[in-house]
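wait is this the right file?? whatever heres the structure
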């Protein structure tokens, strides 16, 4: 078992970090005693700041904006001179970067570059690269000799954040989450269908998870249409991924578009309905123990409004009845 692991990424924006959380959890579960170093070689990683609380105990060290992996002359020297790792996991597939990383002292090197030609281990015969970005990273854990059981290592919890979540969603309620936003409105299922779905549910409390921009556009509409709905993030002084995930743990199910919030809901390991249209579900769907993906393409179009209200309602009612 490796005692030291270096994971190389180019950079991590917030969306990238959220997609990679299952990989981080699976890696820690596979190698619980190892010291894991996360290196962003070509830019900034949100694991150094914004998402740092989510990887406490999962990642031991972050090398941010390391400036490694871009220039041909780097092959002539040893990056991270003076350091060595039992295992290096190269999560990208650019040949030059892979050759540079192999110059770092190591015992074992895992990389999918060139169909694993530069890797010390390969997938089993017949393996086909999955379309899912998260699943591609999970495959690297398997090739390195670990099992991809992310559930064996849950995300850390912050006591103050958990207390706030309990105050915003008190015990005793049966809550269903709705995350109608996304990075672009073209990825959003129509708000009026979220509202109609929430209004049709009995014996549950609708919980709408809105970012600042979404709240500005939609909060009043939701409050007028659904007086019993809760907007907990708008009651908190500070919004954070930690709080969204803590709130999600109080939900019995949730619905989200292809969005960062969708990945936060997935990180809470709750039943999640993910709605996809113009972006490919096979590539971007969150990894969770309870996945339910509904694609607009299955209803004859790529636009989100092609997804019928009835289709989402049926899946949600099944989840709530189990």
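ok assuming it is, sequence goes like this
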């Amino acid at each position: 078992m490796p005692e030291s692991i270096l994971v190389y990424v180019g950079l991590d924006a917030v969306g990238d970090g959220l997609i990679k959380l299952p990989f981080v959890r699976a890696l820690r579960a596979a190698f619980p005693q190892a010291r894991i170093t996360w290196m962003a070689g070509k830019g900034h990683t949100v694991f150094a700041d914004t998402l740092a609380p989510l990887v406490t105990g999962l990642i031991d060290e972050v090398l941010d904006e390391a400036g490694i992996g871009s220039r041909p002359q780097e092959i002539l020297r040893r990056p991270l001179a003076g350091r060595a790792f039992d295992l290096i996991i190269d999560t990208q597939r650019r040949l030059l970067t892979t050759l540079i990383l192999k110059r770092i002292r190591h015992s074992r090197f895992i990389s999918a570059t060139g169909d694993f030609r530069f890797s010390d281990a390969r997938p089993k015969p017949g393996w086909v690269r999955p379309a899912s970005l998260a699943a591609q990273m999970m495959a690297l854990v398997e090739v390195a000799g670990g099992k991809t059981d992310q559930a064996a290592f849950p995300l850390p919890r912050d006591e103050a954040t958990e207390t706030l979540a309990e105050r915003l969603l008190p015990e005793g309620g049966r809550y269903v989450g709705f995350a109608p936003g996304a990075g672009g409105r073209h990825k959003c299922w129509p708000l009026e269908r979220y509202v109609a779905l929430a209004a049709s549910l009995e014996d549950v409390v609708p919980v709408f998870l809105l970012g600042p921009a979404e709240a500005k556009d939609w909060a009043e509409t939701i409050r007028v249409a659904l007086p019993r709905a809760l907007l907990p993030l708008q009651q908190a002084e500070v919004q954070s991924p930690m709080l969204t995930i803590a709130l999600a743990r109080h939900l019995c199910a949730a619905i989200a578009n292809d969005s960062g919030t969708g990945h936060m809901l997935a990180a809470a390991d709750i039943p999640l309905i993910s709605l996809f249209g113009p972006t490919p579900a096979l590539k971007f769907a969150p990894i969770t123990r309870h996945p339910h993906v509904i694609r607009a393409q299955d209803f004859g179009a790529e636009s989100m409004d092609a997804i019928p209200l009835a289709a989402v309602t049926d899946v949600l009612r099944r989840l709530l009845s189990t």
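The chain has two domains: 4-152, 159-321. so i think its the right one actually
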